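Exercise: predict the fold of this chain.
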Amino acid sequence: MGEVIPFVSKAERERIRLIKEARAIYDSVFPPDGPVDEQGSETPVVHPFSGGGSVS
């Protein structure tokens, strides 16, 4: 059976490239303390954002 290859848009590829570039710059300024897990360095970090609501 054929292998399924997921579609990744140009915008998503650019986003991933920019994240990797930013992480490399950050790591050159603030080197990690210990060994970094290989998979962890590939996975983008997502920080939840809550906002946009009115403040009472």
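Check your answer against the key: The radius of gyration is 17 Å.
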